[in-house]
Design brief:
Layout: H1 2-14, H2 19-32, E1 35-37, H3 38-45, H4 52-62, H5 71-87, H6 97-100, E2 103-105, H7 106-126, H8 137-152, H9 154-157, H10 165-180, H11 183-206, H12 212-217
Antiparallel strand pairs: 1-2
Length: 218
């Protein structure tokens, strides 16, 4: 029992509290490994940190890398797994092997961290602990439900160029809000989610993705 408490205390002391903290952890991993696995990131950032694993995949999707076919759906699955565990109240994040073992070259990870550094500094300056009650457990669970719904829109939206940016931007806002305990940003993320789902449904309908089944039945 004591060893488990010590483990939790150790993880708590290494938890990240800002976007710059996340990037620092990624640089440390890059300096000590030839390749960086997602599982390594989980260990370094902290298994109790759900926010970063909502924020990082969403930012990757929004970046130019997100245009790689199949990547948005993979990132959406990773986010959904994270959000579901947040919903059921798990204290430690778990990722399946096929996700945890995915890796990138250390130099690529370090370059990405360096490129994101100016944005990270701005985000840390702009967003901080406003209305922290809105980031408490009950509101986290509400956010988790919304995030899971948003991830369901990703596979069909991937058929349209850059369309996954809509739900992923809302997810990134939720992840950042949880990371820095910013309740105002949680509210903004909720509004963004409503807009993303509405606009996404409109795009899919207008391009015939949603209506193709109905036409076939007629």
């Amino acid at each position: 029992m004591r060893s488990e408490e010590q483990r939790d205390e150790g993880e708590g002391s290494s938890e990240v509290h800002s976007v710059c903290d996340i990037l620092d952890k990624l640089r440390e991993l890059s300096d000590s490994n030839d390749k960086v696995k997602i599982g390594d990131m989980l260990e370094a950032i902290g298994k109790r940190s759900f926010g970063p694993f909502l924020l990082l995949p969403a930012l990757i999707d929004i970046s130019p890398v997100g245009s790689i076919p199949g990547l948005p759906t993979f990132l959406g699955l990773m986010i959904a797994i994270t959000a579901f565990q947040l919903l059921i109240g798990r204290n430690h994040l778990w990722l399946p092997g096929f996700i945890a073992n995915r890796s990138r070259k250390s130099e690529d990870v370090k370059k990405a961290a360096d490129k994101l550094n100016p944005l990270a500094k701005r985000l840390d300056r702009w967003f901080h602990g406003r209305l922290p009650r809105l980031t408490s457990k009950p509101f986290q669970r509400v956010a988790a439900v919304i995030i899971v719904l948003l991830t369901l829109t990703v596979p069909p939206l991937e058929l349209l160029p850059l369309a996954t940016t809509l739900p992923m931007a809302a997810i990134a806002a939720f992840g950042l809000a949880l990371l820095v305990h910013d309740g105002l940003l949680m509210l903004i993320a909720g509004v963004m989610s409503i807009a993303a789902i509405g606009i996404g449904a409109g795009l899919l309908s207008s391009t015939g993705v949603l209506g193709s089944g109905g036409e076939g039945g007629g």
